[in-house]
Amino acid sequence: MAESSRSSRSAPRDAFAALAAAVFWFALTLQAWLTLELTRSNGAGAGRALWILLAYFTILSNLLAAIALSVPLLVPRSAPGRFFARPGPITAITVYMLLVGIAYNLLLRSVWNPQGWQLLADTLLHCVNPLLFLAYWWIAGRSHAVSYSALRAWALYPLAYLSYAVGRGLSGDFYAYPFIDLGQLGFARAGLNAVVVALGFCAIAASLIALGRRSSP
Hints:
The protein is mainly alpha-helical.
């Protein structure tokens, strides 16, 4: 009876996770195809397309979220399946996805004007997917308390990304985001922008942790 009740309670969560995972993988596949078409038109190939995609926090975070949605469904008893079903990782990825959405809409939306399939990919990756993962967190992770100390571990990923993105720019590759472009902005302005984004990350994380702790039994 207990096992049956537990399965019943998890069925809506799993159904939503499956739907969200399908949207995430579609958005990532669409963006990969668009990037590949762009690199081919410029005389490059799949390797260059992959290298461009891996420059973006948006792509990396959406990929992480897609994996987090899919693995507990496909291999729930595996170590990765159990890990991504835990409230801590679910909350952390929700923070990353909300950072993607908020940063894009506040800092980047006015930078360019995508059209057609690119507009669809952008809308999914930056607007729809963050809201979908927030809803998943509400269903699967909100009712469990997470310690505020977890924020330190969660910050390692965006800090590592920042180092990686700046390193790519300094090495002669491109800066994925204009607000960290040291060549255009200088160290002081780019550093200030990074601090503002970091404060936003902390505010989002602390808010989700607080809400989760209030909702936990």
